[in-house]
Design goal:
mainly beta; four-stranded antiparallel beta sheet; globular
Length: about 140
């Protein structure tokens, strides 16, 4: 039997919002780092950390990684997610043909072999000269 939900008593609202106007529960624990970290121009890779705690077992097979990287030539940037044990998962390769600004994206990583709790890192490296940027924020949704 199919049960339909009746929202006729809800006031008008934006798409994607609940009846009271708030966003719906994302369905997982969210950990975020909103501290800016500069990415050196054509320099060494840098990292931004998120400490995950209170999650039982391993990370999910569909770990959601949201990134907000400000950069004047996003094709210069390589991004990796680094698990607590040091395993790296490539999120984005560099591309000389991608001259747009900024990386605002969501990546899905199969991290099911990784213990969830510990320090996760977003590693960024600028691979070409002349353009600069920084990690603005990033988050993990378990």
């Amino acid at each position: 039997m199919l049960n339909l939900l009746d929202y006729s008593d809800c006031p008008p609202r934006a798409i994607g919002k609940t009846c009271d106007g708030t966003p719906p529960d994302p369905g997982g624990k969210v950990f975020e780092n909103a501290n800016n970290v500069n990415i050196p121009d054509a320099g060494a890779a840098i990292t931004s950390d998120i400490i995950v705690s209170g999650v039982t077992g391993n990370a999910p097979a569909a770990l959601k990684v949201d990134v907000d990287v400000k950069h004047t030539y996003r094709g210069d940037v390589v991004l990796d997610l680094v698990a607590p044990d040091g395993s790296a998962y490539r999120l984005k390769n560099s591309s000389t043909s991608d001259s747009a600004d900024n990386i605002i994206a969501t990546y899905t990583v199969n991290a099911s072999t990784e213990v969830a709790n510990g320090t996760w890192k977003l590693r960024a490296q600028d691979t070409y000269r002349s353009d600069t940027g920084y990690i603005d924020s990033w988050k993990l949704t378990f």
